[in-house]
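Figure S4 source data
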Amino acid sequence: MKKLKNHVEELFKDIPESEQKNAIKQEVLENLEEKVWDLKANGKEEEDAINKAIVEFGDIEDLKRELGVKQPVKKNMTKLNLGYSIWGSALIIALFLFINLYYSPDVIWFVYPTFAVLWWPLTMYFKWQRSK
């Protein structure tokens, strides 16, 4: 049952040490071992029983909230992404304009890749609007 113990240790690694954590860890481990014994009694192989018990147990997000573990806060980077896409598009379009005017000034072709490049800031704009 070392695999169960390792799994429980992995589940509880983000939670700070406390008596409550140790008690809950022990209870979870006992419940998983009981589940494995029940599955083995019903004819499952030990490895299959352990894997099934782990899968059926799921995650411990509710326990983490109860024990006071703070979830990582996700930053809203949409405005920064919009600015980056605008500046990047401007530089790419300027490059196309320079190449067009320097190598083939008689044919204006830089407009076509410009339409393709403008999709980038356009999508970032709509993403920024949706996140507001």
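Figure S5 source data
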Amino acid sequence: MAYGAIAAGAISLLVAIGFGIGAVFYLIEMHYGARAAFAGTGGFFLALGLIGLVSGRVMLSRSAPPVPRPRRQMEMVKRAIAAPVATRLILGSSASGAARVDPVTQSLAAAAAVLLVGWVVAARFKRRPRDED
């Protein structure tokens, strides 16, 4: 609904601009004639178009800002992963009773590992289509 209201508002604004241009054209035509009205409105749109083209060209010629590197996020992920793994390795898996994994999670992890290995093998030994003689 919101996008429809925005679209209707934009279309109405364009129609109002068109009526304004028509009124200016009529005003120029009444005072200076049809040729001056066509020349004035045509020149206005020519200048507007050239300004748009030049400004767009200038914007495109500027270098893009560098892509931000996710260093901080990667450090957070490393800390989040490294701390529990180090704790489990130091204390041993029997020390943490809450870290027991249920059979469903074990089977899903095994299936994911099998799929990963299959994907790597398939990518490694990818067959090329035979050329038909």
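The chain has a mean pLDDT of 81. The two ends are 60 Å apart (CA to CA).
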